[in-house]
Amino acid sequence: MTATDDAGLTVGEAAGSLRVTVRTLHHWHEIGLVAPGGRSASGYRLYGAADLARAQRVQLYRELGLPLEEIGALLDGGDASASLIEQRDRLLTRIDELRAMVNGVERMIDAGSRGLLLTARQQAEIFGPGWDPAWVDEARERYGDSAQWSEYAERAAGRDASDWQGIAETMRSLDADLASAMREGVEPGSDAANALAERHRDTISTHFACSHAMQVCLARTYVDDPRFTAHYEAFAPGLAAWLQRVIDANARAHGVDPATAVWE
Q1: What is the CATH number of the domain that holds 45?
Q2: Both 148 and 244 in a single domain?
């Protein structure tokens, strides 16, 4: 309180003392929460010691998260216990929500650095004995700065072993159907082949959005990278090259030239 007037502080002085804005004090006054009880000789409203004490109690309850309408009732003689218990329960619920959010963020960070939130043993059980966990590390080193890797990591963070098991089974089923179609003489560019190409693109899109041009780029690796080639050749000799032709033909049907397709 200043020595200017024994009756109390002006609204500006009171705001500075309470470390709130003048607008806040005006609002509290308007809703009847804290009103200046005195007046200066010049007619200005002044906040006395009791007014400032009430304002400090308002601040305390605000910091606890209580709404202003509840605070007014408490200051005017209401029982604070019930409101405080309710607010405590709300805060505990919020704490649980925040912990879950932190865990989600940590999983995303982990997925961004590891790629798969699975142990080496889980990976072998889900993807088969031919799977090499080092492939994920290689992919992260190669694509870790790409938008597709970020999207992959975001989705991977929300997946557990059963989710990956379902994805692996879907891929194995597709590979088996691709091999059967090739043996049956399905021609690239036919409706049946195009449907298989779209199924293949859908499986890739479970990890990140895959355009037809990007699918063409992936198909190139199936014949250029011996590891991918071996994967498809295990289902049927010549499958990697046939699948590339199928994907290329389907891309042409969607206006993409496989010869000039680039990663998007």
Answers
A1: 1.10.1660.10
A2: yes
Residue 156 tokens read as 């991977």
Provide the residue-wise pLDDT of the chain in tens; the chain has 264 residues.
443 445 689 999 999 999 999 999 999 999 999 999 988 888 888 999 999 999 998 998 888 888 888 888 888 876 777 777 888 888 889 888 888 777 667 666 666 666 677 787 888 888 887 777 777 777 777 777 788 888 888 888 888 889 999 999 999 999 999 999 999 999 999 999 999 999 999 999 999 999 999 999 999 999 999 988 998 999 999 999 999 999 999 999 999 999 999 988
Q: Which residue has the tokens 């606890």?
A: 64
Amino acid at 160: D
Q: Are residues 58 and 128 in the same domain?
A: no
Residue 34: domain span: 11-78
Q: What is the enclosing helix (H) or strand (E) of 42?
A: none
Same-domain status, 153 and 232? yes
- Structure-token pair, residue 55: 């304002």
Q: Is residue 258 part of a domain?
A: no
DSSP conformational letter for 38: E
